[in-house]
């Protein structure tokens, strides 16, 4: 697969999301950066906001139309909720579920957000698992 020589420029929105920088994300969206583009790790900007535990940035991206179930199926990528289920911020998992995240989309090694959360034994993991177990599809 050829290397995209413009990858660094193309992933500016991903980096702004990883930093939780809403003003920069606002400028980049206005400059036509794509909200739901996958990077080489199969992450969208929303994945990075979640990974960085930037609740307000994740909420802002969702308000702008970020795909709550973004999943790069060609690369067996994870959903944003699957990333959240591995983190330490249950409120982000709750936000995603309220916005329509599906905890049963398979990702890497056929793992889902639900299966990842249920395997955890720490307090945040238990909270995330409880939120996911209470999930009822719309």
Automatic annotation (TrEMBL):
InterPro entries attached to this UniProt entry: Ankyrin_rpt (IPR002110), Ankyrin_rpt-contain_sf (IPR036770)
UniProt entry tagged with the keyword Repeat: yes
Pfam family, one: Ank_2
Record keywords, A-Z: ANK repeat, Repeat
Transmembrane residue ranges: none
Matches recorded under PROSITE patterns: ANK_REP_REGION (PS50297), ANK_REPEAT (PS50088)
Calcium as UniProt keyword: no
Protein's name according to its UniProt entry: Ankyrin repeat domain-containing protein
Annotated source species: Achromobacter seleniivolatilans
């Amino acid at each position: 697969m050829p290397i995209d020589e413009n990858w660094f420029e193309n992933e500016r929105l991903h980096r702004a999301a990883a930093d939780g920088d809403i003003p920069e994300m606002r400028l980049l969206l206005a400059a036509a950066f794509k909200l739901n583009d996958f990077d080489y790790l199969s992450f969208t900007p929303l994945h990075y906001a979640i990974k960085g535990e930037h609740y307000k940035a994740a909420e802002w991206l969702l308000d702008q139309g970020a795909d709550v179930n973004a999943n790069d199926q060609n690369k067996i990528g994870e959903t944003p909720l699957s990333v959240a289920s591995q983190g330490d911020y249950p409120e982000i998992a709750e936000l995603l579920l309220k916005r329509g995240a599906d905890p049963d989309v398979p990702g890497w090694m056929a793992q889902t957000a639900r299966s990842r959360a249920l395997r955890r034994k720490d307090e945040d993991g238990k909270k995330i698992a409880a939120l996911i177990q209470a999930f009822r599809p719309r």
